Amino acid sequence: MIKRDFSHTWKTPTGLEVKADIPPYVWMYNRGTIDIDVSDARECDHRVKTPFTMDLNSPEELIKWLEELKIAESDCKICKAHIIHRESEYRQADECDICCKERLSAEWAVENAQRAKEEAAEEQKMVKKGYFFKTVAWVHPSRGGDDYMMVWFSVSKPTVAQVQKILKKEGSRVMDDYGTKDLRTGKVA
Questions:
Q1: How far apart are CA 80 and CA 106, in angstroms?
Q2: Is 89 found in the same domain as 18?
Q3: Can you give the pLDDT at residue 57?
Q4: Which of 13, 23, 45, 56 lies at a 20 to 30 A Cα distance from 108?
Q5: Is position 173 within any domain?
């Protein structure tokens, strides 16, 4: 009898260790194809869509069938690890998930540093104009939809009532999701 939440690990002919998980819904719906989640030692997950019949009667038959699947393999161009070949919106071909995460983190750090630099320049410009407080508030629309951020500068620190009036005018259902920064000291006021 085959377990309804089946998992199997094996090595491909090239030595790549692969783990396949067959989700329970496969046994409920015979659609002719299934999605099998496979992963390798570098935590590179991939979904393989493959033809499938319910004619497999034992775990041994299922294991034999899995081990005969053709899984595209490659070497990570950065760390040289042998991986399941997969491209996605963020992951480049021949790049393992770990190297992809490191590359994306580095890109994100550069973007954040640039954004912080631009924000600091804008704040200094506003201080020169006489605006000493920056308020950042999140509007949570009462009619639903995505939250959005509002930013405004002021000469004096806005009162709670002033901020709530602005948030109410914007149609926010939450009136206390904001912060005010004193631009002279850099501290949240």
A1: 20
A2: yes
A3: 63
A4: 45
A5: yes
